[in-house]
Amino acid sequence: MKNEILAYTDGEAYPFHMPGHKRNISDGLFPYKLDLTEIDGFDNLHRPEGFIKGIEDKAARIYHAQRAFLLVNGATGGILSAIKASTSRGDKIIVARNCHTSVYHAAELLGLRAEYILPEPATDDIYGRISPTALERQLADNPGVSLVIITSPTYEGICSDIKEIAQICHSYGAKLFVDEAHGAHFPFHSAFPQNAMQCGADIAVVSLHKTMPALTQTALLLTSNREMVQPLQSALSFFQTSSPSYVLMSCIENCLTEKWDFDGYINRIHRLENSLRELNNLKMLFRGQEDYDFGKLVISTQNAGISGIELADILRKRYNIEVEMAANGYIIAMTSVCDTDCGFDRLKNALLKIDLNCSGGWSDNFRMTFELPERRLFPFEITRTKAVDFKEAQGMISAEDIFAYPPGIPIIVKGEVLSAELIGYITALRGSNVNIISSADSYPESILIADL
Ligand SMILES: Cc1ncc(COP(=O)(O)O)c(C=O)c1O
Question: pLDDT class for 212, splitting at 50, 70, 90?
Answer without folding.
Answer: very high
